[in-house]
Amino acid sequence: MWSLQHKIIISLFLACLMTGCLGPKSTVPIRYYLIDPIEYPKNLSLKKDTPLSIEIISLHIPQYLERFHIAKRVSKSRLDFSENHQWGENLRKNLLRTMSRNLSQLLSTLDIGTPLNRSASLPDYRIQIHIEQFELESNNKVKLVARWQLSSRNKSKPLGVFSAKLQGEKTIKKGNYEQMVSVMRQLYGDLCEHIAKTIVTQESSIPQ
């Protein structure tokens, strides 16, 4: 006849078998990604003796992109989030910092303020950026939809609202998040170039 102690040991052993604590667990490592700045072949041409001062007032992204798990669309109205592929930091902050560095390179200026890094200068131009979509679509291609408002210290009203719809040419292989993030990085670099060109266009229209 089993003693109470034996019964307890057997119960614990069976519980471990059911939960799998006695066997080796197959764990998939979590991989982390960032949208880094890109290297542009050349800077945009500006007819100005002194570097511009730029302030990125805000950069908004959809709430579903605020998660660390990388999002992708499996249909027009359904999203999937990866457990094992995540952003290395808050995506909005990552995009904000990368936007600053990309614009700095394109416009040949170090004087770019953001909500994360304020500038003491009075900005020549202020930008508000709204990213409406930035993920892998169900057709396995990355899509970036954004709009931005540009204003100048010389005018009380905004100079205009601009937009861009960008799509990567590469078809992303299933489960290849490194390839997907690489395309996202390039598309985001293209968006930064679109924004920089609107500033250059406005600056070129000012009489010298």
Along the chain, the helix and strand elements come as HEEEEHEEEEH
Helix amount, in percent?
A: 25-40%
Euclidean distance between termini CA atoms:
102 Å
Name the average pLDDT.
88
Number of strands: 8
Return the structural class. alpha/beta
The strand order across the widest sheet is: 5-2-6-7-8
Q: Looking at the structure, what is the overall shape?
A: elongated
Could you say what the CATH architecture is? 3-Layer(aba) Sandwich
Q: How many alpha or pi helices?
A: 3
State the major sheet.
5 strands, mixed
Into how many domains do the coordinates divide? Answer: 1
CATH homologous superfamily heading:
ABC-type transport auxiliary lipoprotein component
Alpha carbon gyration radius? 24 Å
Strand content: 25-35%
Broad CATH class: Alpha Beta
Query: Ranges with pLDDT <50 over ≥5 residues?
Result: none
